[in-house]
Amino acid sequence: MPAADANPDPSAPEERTPRDRAFYGLIWACTTLTAHADAALVRRHGLPLTWFEVMLWLHGETEPVAVSDLGAKALLSRSQVSRVVDALEDRGLVERSPSPYDARSVRVTLTPAGRTTFTAANATRRESLAEVFDDLLDDADIAALETVWNKLKGRSVC
Fold first, then answer.
1. Of 24, 50, 55, 54, which Cα lies nearest the Cα of 37?
2. How far apart (Å, rounded) are the C-alpha atoms in residues 32 and 132?
3. pLDDT at 2
């Protein structure tokens, strides 16, 4: 058998296993839902999804958060987080403060305007995804997705 035949092309539909389809389905879902939410957030609030994601993590905190911690949570590089924080700070949505634990570190928190903006943007995110996500999935689907995501997050490779 020639070497080319020994390794089927996983991009050929007839060669995709159920695991291939599940993997590519996750990629498709992530890309599609991310683009959908990003477009709605930019259109209504001038907030790209990466900005919203940083605000999401800050919104859940009662104390200022180190920039490095934001990068780990939002899966952004240190330079990306710094640029996002700069942009959010320029809009008055976050403020920086020196870390009480490390003189070289800066911590970030949402301003009152940032909390208000996040609340409105989160409503927009939910509304934008209703038709393409929430309305299509029942409670059992959501529970199954949570089970899968928890398994994948428990063995995170990132």
1. 50
2. 9
3. 46
